[in-house]
């Protein structure tokens, strides 16, 4: 089931000297590390299971290179739910200028059991912690 909604920009990062490549811009590997971490946290929250693994990341489109001192933000949205997986889209932008930095159209994460085997998660749509808390208090 596909979800059409606004990306959630929760994580912000400040580009520091240790994040730079020899061109004095943000090292792409560092940005991909930040994205993978943000996406897996999103998947863990959505599937309500701390055992989630990265399965697939589609083409990565680097649009602009952040420089030292820039503040960037990472946006993630679920676009679909499989039997054992969640598919997401990602955008990264400059927090202050809103200029795009990177897009990834498809990231797939798989829900696994304690032994690492894919396991059904039972989700069909995006859920938010505040809604789960409200359900639990009724």
Q: Kindly estimate the percentage of residues that lie in beta strands according to DSSP.
A: 35-45%
Shape by Cα distribution: elongated
Largest sheet: 6 strands, antiparallel
In CATH, the topology is named: Thiol Ester Dehydrase, Chain A
Helix content: 10-25%
User: Treating each run of at least 4 consecutive H or I residues as one helix, how many helices?
Assistant: 2
- Return Rg in Å: 16 Å
Keywords:
2 helices, elongated, Thiol Ester Dehydrase, Chain A, about 140 residues, alpha+beta
Task: Show the helix and strand layout.
Layout: E1 8-14, H1 28-47, E2 52-57, E3 60-62, E4 71-81, E5 85-94, E6 100-111, H2 129-136
Describe this structure in words.
The structure is a single chain. The chain is an alpha+beta fold and 138 residues long. It has one domain (8-136): Thiol Ester Dehydrase, Chain A (Roll). It is built from 2 helices and 6 strands; from the N terminus they run βαβββββα. It starts with 7 loop residues before the first strand and ends with a helix.
């Amino acid at each position: 089931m596909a979800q059409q909604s606004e990306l959630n920009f929760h994580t912000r990062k400040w580009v520091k000297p240790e994040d730079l490549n020899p061109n004095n811009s943000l090292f792409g590997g560092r940005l991909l590390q930040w994205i993978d971490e943000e996406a897996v946290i999103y998947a863990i929250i959505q599937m309500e299971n701390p055992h989630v693994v990265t399965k697939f990341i589609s083409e990565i489109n680097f649009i602009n290179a952040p420089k030292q001192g820039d503040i960037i933000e990472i946006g993630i949205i679920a676009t679909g739910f499989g039997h054992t997986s969640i598919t997401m889209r990602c955008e990264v932008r400059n927090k202050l200028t809103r200029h795009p930095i990177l897009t990834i159209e498809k990231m797939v994460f798989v829900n696994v059991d304690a032994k690492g085997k894919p396991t059904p998660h039972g989700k069909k749509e995006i859920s938010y912690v505040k809604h789960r808390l409200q359900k639990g208090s009724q």
